[in-house]
Amino acid sequence: MKKVLISYDYSKTFASILKEKLDVLNVNYILVGNNEILFDEDLSKTLLDELESILKPYAISIIDDKNQALVERIKSVISHMLDDDQPIRCNTSDYLSQTLNYSYAYLSSVFSETTYTSIESFIILCKVDKAKELLLRSNLTLTEIAYRLKYSSVAHLSRQFKKTTGMTPSTFQQIIQKRKALINP
Amino acid sequence: MLRVFLTDDDEDDRLFFQESIESIDIETELVLFENGNELMSYLNADDAKLPHLIFLDLNMPIKNGLECLKEIKNSDKLKDLLIAIYSTSSSEKDIETTFVNGANIYINKPDNFNSLKTSIEKVLKINWQYHTSNLNRETFLFRI
Predict the structure, then answer these.
(1) Does B25 touch chain A (CB under 8 A)?
(2) Tens digit of each residue's pLDDT (9 = 90 or more) over A64-96
(3) What pLDDT does residue A11 have?
(4) Which of A105, A146, B42, B130 has a CA that sits 20 to 30 A from residue A118's CA?
C-alpha cells in the first residue's frame, strides 16, 4: 500500500473546474471572484439548465433569485395576515397556497431553504415581534394583545413569548423601561 | 453570507465555538478576537468591515465585555450592531445589566458541543430574520 498526501489551493481548483465545464457551453464569459460568472449575452433557458446540470456533480448550484422573490411574497402575505383588521384565517397554509398559487409543500421548502427558518417559526417570530411592539407602544393589557393577535388564550401567548424570547412579557417590559431610563435619565 | 465576530480570551472556547459554527448549514464568515481591546480597535478603524453579529464574552482582562458593549452602544457608527453576550455567567444581574445596556441576545456558554451548536444555530436564524425581514430592532431581545 502507498499513501500519497495532496495539497491544493481551493480557489484555483474551483476556478479550473468551472473553466473546464463552462468551455463546453461555447459562450463567452468571465469569472468574477469565487462565485460569480458574467456572460456576454443572456442565456437561454436550455443553456441555463445545461449549466445547472453539468455543475451539479461538483455540488455547485446556481442561486436562483426567483426563490428570493417568492420568499419576499410569502413574507408580505404573512405580514398582511397579521394586520389587526384582518379576519381570523383558520388555516394559514391554505391561505398562503391560494394567494400565491403554489402548493404549500413547495412554498414551505423554498422558504426554509432560502431563509433557514420554517414558515411556521417565522410566523411565530412575527407574532411575538408584534406582541413586543404592542406591549411597549400601547396601553393594552396582555389579555387584549392576545385577543388582537388571535391567540386562543393569554396563557398561549405568554407561553409562546417565553419559549421564543427566553423571557416573560413582564421581564421584557422591565428591561426596555430600564433601557429607556438609562438613555434618557 | 453572515459575517460574525467572536471575542473571547479563552483559546479553547474560541476553537469550540469555531468548530460549532462551521458545522452549521448557514454560511458564515467568522472573525476571532482575543480580547476587548482587539475588537474595539478593529471596529473603530475607518476601513472596518462591520459584522452582522458580534458574540461577546463578558469576563475578559483589560477590557471586559460590558465595557465593549457600552462603547459600541455609545458610538454613532457602531450603535446599530447586533450584540450577543456569550458568557458562563447565569447571574440574573449580569443578564439584566447587559440587556439594559443594549445587548440583543444572551447565551449561557453550554458545556457540550451539541447544545452549543443548537444555541448558535438558533441565534443565527433569528439574526438572519432580523437582517432580511421587517422586524423591530429596538425590541430585539432574546435569551437563549
Answers:
(1) yes
(2) 678 888 998 898 888 888 876 666 666 888 989
(3) 72
(4) A146
Residues of chain A with Cβ-Cβ distance to B129 below 8 Å are 115, 117, 122, 125
Q: What CATH number should be reported for the domain whose range is A122-183?
A: 1.10.10.60
User: Nearest to residue B88, comparing CAs of B16, B30, B18, B25?
Assistant: B16
Instruction: Compute the mean pLDDT over every residue in chain A, rounded to the nearest whole number.
Output: 86
Distance from CA of B140 to the nearest CA of A (A): 8
pLDDT on residue A87: 63
Residue A138 and residue A154: Cα distance in Å, rounded? 17
Q: What is the pLDDT of residues B45-103, one digit of tens each?
A: 999 999 999 999 999 988 999 999 999 999 999 999 999 999 999 899 999 999 999 99
Backbone φ, ψ for residue A122 (5° rounding): -65, -45
The structural domains of chain B, ordered by start, are 2-143 (3.40.50.2300)
Which ranges of B74-135 would DSSP assign to H, the alpha helix?
Answer: 92-100, 113-132
Smallest CA–CA distance, residue B69 to chain A, in Å, is 13
Question: Chain A within 8 Å of B26 (Cβ-Cβ)?
Answer: yes
- Spacing of C-alpha A49 from chain mean position: 25
With CB atoms and an 8 Å threshold, state whether B96 touches A178. yes
Please judge whether B141 and A116 are an interchain contact, meaning their C-beta atoms are less than 8 angstroms apart.
Answer: no
Contact status, residue B88 vs residue B109, Cβ threshold 8 Å:
yes
Mean pLDDT of B124-131: 86
> 10 Å Cβ neighbour count for B135?
19
Residue A88, pLDDT score: 63
> A165 and B99 in contact by Cβ < 8 A?
no
CA distance B52 to chain A (A): 15
Q: Find the helix or strand (DSSP H, E) in which A73 lies.
A: helix A65-81
Global pTM value = 0.76
Q: Flag if A75 and B135 touch (Cβ within 8 Å).
A: no
Q: Residue B57 CB: number of other CB atoms within 10 A?
A: 25
Nearest to B129 among A115, A175, A178 (CB): A115
